[in-house]
Amino acid sequence: MRKKSLKKSIIFGKRIFLKNFLKKDITKFYINALNDPQLTKYSRQKYIFHKKSNCIHYLNSFKKSKNLFLKIVCKKTNKFIGTTTIYFSGDNMSADIGIFILNKNFHSLGYATEVYKLLTNFLFDNSFKVEKITAGTSINNKAMIKVLKKAAFKLDKKKKIKISNNRLVSSLFFYKLKK
Question: Which residue of 9, 65, 69, 108 sits 20 to 30 Å from the alpha carbon of 23, by its own alpha carbon?
Fold first, then answer.
């Protein structure tokens, strides 16, 4: 039950629902959020200038893969508040979850924690055959560390990550949750 069965599915949580991110979701709001230095302070996105063309290219990269790119929507307001990705690794039956809450009005209200809990339950309770779920964050991203701990993730390792010219991006924490 990988991508094909989820293609038109909606995953419902208490206050949110998740559904496939579509080309029509690449709006000015979305692109502006990706280019917002405050929102991307702890993200690799801060090194990229986003425009519609590279956002479409990124979205298209999911079409022929087993990975998922989902839109996070608040049930109460029906507002698009963020995105989440799931990257599957077939060899070790693991999935890595990433999240980006785009709308600042939804920060620090438990939405990110709800997404992580919803997706971990969904991945472990369905026929994905996932045994381990991982997530990573900057060592300085205290809010995300708190989210991962609330979602029952455990610290797995600490690593320094470098980019193209060997410049240090950040020290990262990697967390995992096992079935």
Answer: 108
Residues of the chain short of pLDDT 70, as ranges, are 1-8, 91-92, 126-127, 161-174
Q: What is the pLDDT of residue 161?
A: 67
Q: What is the pLDDT of residue 51?
A: 97
The pair of structure tokens assigned to 135 is 């997530």
**How far is it, in rounded angstroms, from Cα 25 to Cα 3?**
19
- CA distances 117 to 25, 28, 87, 93, Å, are 24, 29, 16, 19
Cβ-contact 135, 116 below 8 angstroms: yes
76-115 pLDDT tens trace:
999 999 999 999 987 658 899 999 999 999 999 999 999 9
Count the neighbouring beta carbons within 10 Å of the beta carbon of residue 83: 21
Domains of the chain are: 3-178 (3.40.630.30)
Neighbours of 20 (CB within 10 A): 17
Tokens found for residue 86 = 């799931």
